[in-house]
Amino acid sequence: MPVDKMVDLSGRQLRRLPLHICSFRELVKLYLSDNNLNHLPPELEQLQNLQILALDFNNFKALPLVVCTLKQLCILYLGNNKLCSLPLELRLLQNLKTLWIESNCLQHLPEVVCELSLLKTLHAGSNALRTLPAQLRGLQELRTIWLSGNLLSEFPPVLLHMPFLEVIDVDRNAIRFFPSLAHLPGLKLVIYDHNPCRNAPKVAKGVRRVGRWSEESPEPRKREKQINPVTEALSNSLPSP
């Protein structure tokens, strides 16, 4: 058992997980990134203290169900695989706070994600998402959502009903119009660059915008009529007709 309760087997060209790893029952962090894995052994269930599991940059076409038995997981990296969906059993990971599912084959955000009540950060960029489920608004702990590189043709309406969001990234989509985001009290940053938009999203004072027209005032300023003080004085001195 490693002293730091961590095992990093990233970049080893592994096709299967060495079974002796599953005997480290106090393991807290397991990094298996950048291998050739497409399945995991059922013995992985023995790692009930695991809090961080990295499976990104592998060949998973489906999430192994054994992952959903690791109920202490807080961070799960699934990016850069070949996932088209997520199993309903993912709802068992009620301690999950960060989920990375970017660069997969998702055409819809799996609704099971909306059942992860403690989720704070969701990375779902570089998929083929066109919409977001309305149930997402139930994630009241969600603070950051990354949706860059998808197929969104409109700003997801559900995000307008999530006042606790702090970061919204919709860079590199197909959004043509942005509604006002000025009513979102928690918002700190919105990234909307590389969209064919006709306007910048209106935001509250102090909110940073990254994208076209981001340095301009959210509200177009009306040009005020300038009065020459000399002309005004002369006008006041003339007798009334």
Automatic annotation (TrEMBL):
Residues 209-241 are annotated as: Disordered. It comes from the Eukaryota. The keyword Iron-sulfur does not apply. Residues 212-226 have a biased composition (Basic and acidic residues). Keywords: Leucine-rich repeat, Repeat. GO terms for molecular function: actin binding; alpha-actinin binding. InterPro entries: Leu-rich_rpt, Leu-rich_rpt_typical-subtyp, LRR_dom_sf, LRR_domain-containing. This is Leucine rich repeat containing 10. GO terms for cellular component: cytoskeleton; mitochondrion; nucleus; sarcomere. GO terms for biological process: cardiac muscle cell development. It holds the Pfam family LRR_1.
